Amino acid sequence: TLLGSIVKKYEYNKISAQPKIRRDLSLLVPENVVYAGIEVKIHRILKRYLQSVKIFDIYSGGQIPKGYYSISIGLIFQDNDVSLTDKEINSDIELLLNDLREDLTIVTRGE
Length: 111
Description:
By secondary structure, this protein is of the alpha+beta class. It is built from 3 helices and 4 strands. The chain has helices at 2-6, 35-46, 86-104, and strands spanning 21-30, 50-59, 68-77, 107-108.
């Protein structure tokens, strides 16, 4: 029928009762490294609990070393079944930071 072809089917996801955890990373990135490479690593390493990734600042000049730019990224984590602990999130972020440091020479600001 005509109406049947117009009606859309929607899928709904259950809203988690568990709290979200936010972590912000401020990184010094070599100018030759593009954000897409960083984002691939973020999703690969943090995929277990990662809900969203958002850039909220990009800066170069001033106190940023020559040949680098600063990028600040907000990460939201959540599990649908249990409350996450700081220890779980911090250990995953440490894995990410080590990988970024070794593969792309990216360091956290202030490091």
